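Checked the freezer inventory, then went back to the computational side. Two predictions to log before the end of the day. The first one is the construct we discussed on Monday; recording sequence and tokens without edits.
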Amino acid sequence: MSGLWRVVLFCYNLLILGLAVAAMYLAVGHTSLIEAGEALLSNSVNQIILGASAAAVIALTIVILISLLKGESKPTSIVISSSLNGQVSITVAAIKTIITKAVKKVDGVKETRSSVTNGPDGIVIYLHMMINPEISVPEMSRNVQAAVKEHLESIGGLQVSEVRVLVDDFASTNKPVTA
């Protein structure tokens, strides 16, 4: 979120806070606020200013609601390096292909799904896996984490912050690894 949006949201929250305080003031029986409002709105210029301010607040509220409903977009590519000669990026689909190849080298993994996000110290890999019930989960997880990290760093040139593994189910059939 940019600095400008932070300032706008801060002011918006102050406005909402002021309206809530005014509502509490009226709720306890103080009518002087209503009288002050009537005196302020007796002038047509003040009415125009209040109407324009209300329209701006409504527009801002709609923009905020739309941005909250959209959510954050997932990255489609990750920057590997940037120099005076240009920038090198790799797509998330290519990263997932490298992950699939790395996971295939580990015995006991039957099925896996992966997702990739940017972290402050490199990319974060989330692996959701189905494994053989005869395999030790801690040992297999360490092997998968090491293989994925090594492949992504050596083949993809990526800085891997962490590889998170979630073992979801145990499979008894011999299904090939899928991504």
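The second is the one RB wanted added to the comparison set:
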Amino acid sequence: MDYYVYMLASKRNGTLYIGVTNDLVRRVSEHKQDLNEGFTKKYGVHLLVHFEECNDVATAIEREKQLKSWHRAWKIRLIEETNPQWRDLYEEIL
């Protein structure tokens, strides 16, 4: 089973959220619809701006922890290397 580490943003250079899931389409849809109380609903963090695929859950969780420990500037640089326009990648994964 594949797992995904993903980053959501409220807008370009806005608030960031990092998560892990085994169903990227479902999980991002939940964030976009504000189905769960929490950080992304409170701060309007709905744009999928980066994601990475991992082969197992342990690797995905390790990568999530690594990204969460990064300085904000490093996270922004990672997003801009793969998605310089900060496009919402959700439509591309449907």
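For RB: The chain has a mean pLDDT of 97. Helices lie at 24-32, 39-43, 57-69, 72-82, 90-93. Let me know if you want it refolded.
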